[in-house]
From TrEMBL, chains A, B:
NCBIfam families: HTH_metalloreg. Residues 3-98 form the HTH arsR-type domain. InterPro entries: ArsR-like_HTH, HTH_ArsR_DNA-bd_dom, HTH_Metal-responsive_Reg, WH-like_DNA-bd_sf, WH_DNA-bd_sf. PANTHER family: TRANSCRIPTIONAL REGULATOR-RELATED (PTHR39168), TRANSCRIPTIONAL REGULATORY PROTEIN (PTHR39168:SF1). It holds the Pfam family HTH_20. This is Winged helix-turn-helix domain-containing protein. The lineage of its organism: Bacteria, Bacillati, Actinomycetota, Actinomycetes, Kitasatosporales.
Length: 236, 236
DNA sequence: CCCGTGCTTCGGCCGTCGCCGAAGTGCGCC
DNA sequence: GGCGCACTTCGGCGACGGCCGAAGCACGGG
């Protein structure tokens, strides 16, 4: 009945949405920014379709997922960058010991590809994300020592590249996102998303398969070297 | 058995710690940065001492709380600023509709005092936090438009005030913390904590009662006006 | 037009978890 | 040294929630 109770109730309800292993697996899978069908998620999580249907109901009702019905398919994706950030933040906080050790060659290959470069919802992450972020900071385009913000030179750099940044949006331009594999922050926020989009549009990198892993192309290596002084060796 | 499963398990376990109303109420209460006894929390949450004892076991085991035994008392507090940030982040995300409407005069008074000024674990929040943050930004001491970072002038300002900032710590110097009541970011991180500590040490503000609410003193109004050009009217 | 497929609804099962009160432990105080 | 208080442990209860399979829709393709 007190103010605290209402807040506690709401907090517990929100956390409760994430507090189930199956739902957590769905949210983590959806971090790839794609829309999955209910069936795909059910197979991914290893539960019956009926079970997953109910989980999706809860996540949608809780505002974490957006859904789109197409024919007999139910497509579902994260409701937005804020939700992705929430999941990322929480996931980044789990103890490193809980991290999985690959057991097969195939797994090890996939894991190292993910560690080299991947997307983190809408921005670049993994080694690639860190290297780009550090290069931006080294060139005075990003202030990372006293917080996390683009400098005026940074704004000009984006402008010169023809990457438009919507500065009126409520979303912060630059935000630090803690990397799982590197345990260091990389560029997220509107600028991180715009840069990532540009990297794909300009052919700097391409997705490996259908997942979140990303590979830097030869053209990408040239562009990153020229624009940010990044050596190709740092990306491997 | 896959990597996703291990991550999902850990994520669900972490969220599960917050997914109970009683535990959530404890964590929210502990945001006042004080150490509470088990009995106080039990009374606060409205459950039996035995029930709360088990909740504390889980929160401590999960690393969210630190405990200290003194005689027959069990003092417990948040394990650190990161945990406070986690709880704050999650709490800030709950829909405004869930917020409580005060029903009595006493409640309304307490709520408005909290809205005017309070601490958010270790930094200033509420109207006070926003006004200070905006004033820092207006004077070019804090860059808020392209992210969230202190400027060189900002570093000099802290230095001139004799507020030491540990720049070697892993904790970010400046970080945005979203305010519940104002729905806008205010200064958190090492600089926010140092500024808050200084504000209390210098007598700029004092706690109202035993809670998180804070009142600006006459000396505080003078200091804020002189150092940051903040008008006293903005604080009311 | 009918069949197959993808999803949903329903009933029922089972495990987990929060809760309590009673009994037990340990500490401090008189 | 014994009483009282703060906390813990234990047993048991009840509720909730996740899970499944079966049956029921709804859409698209043949």
């Amino acid at each position: 009945m007190t103010a605290k109770d209402a807040r506690a109730r709401a907090l517990a309800a929100l956390a409760g949405l994430l507090a189930d292993e199956t739902r957590a697996a769905c949210l983590l899978a959806l971090l790839d920014q794609r829309a999955w069908t209910a069936g795909e998620l059910a197979r991914h999580a290893g539960v019956a379709a009926s079970t997953l249907s109910e989980h999706l109901d809860k996540l949608v009702a809780g505002g974490l997922l957006a859904e789109e019905r197409q024919g007999r398919h139910r497509y579902v994706r994260l409701a937005g960058a804020e939700v992705a950030q929430l999941v990322e933040d929480l996931a980044a906080r789990i103890a490193p010991e809980a991290v999985h050790r690959p057991r097969t060659l195939r797994e090890a290959g996939a894991a190292s590809a993910m560690a080299r470069g991947r997307t983190c919802y809408d921005h670049l992450a993994g080694r690639l994300g860190i290297v780009v972020t550090d290069a931006l900071a080294a060139r005075g385009l990003l202030r990372q020592d006293t917080g996390f913000a683009l400098t005026d030179a940074g704004l000009a750099w984006f402008d010169a590249l023809g990457i438009g940044l919507d500065r009126r949006s409520r979303r912060p331009l630059a935000r630090a996102c803690l990397d799982w594999t590197e345990r260091r922050p990389h560029l997220a926020g509107a600028a991180g998303a715009a840069l990532c989009r540009h990297a794909f549009d300009a052919g700097w990198c391409v997705r490996i398969g259908s997942g979140r892993a990303v590979r830097v192309t030869a053209a990408g290596e040239r562009a990153l070297a020229e624009l940010l002084g990044i050596e190709a060796a740092a990306l491997r």
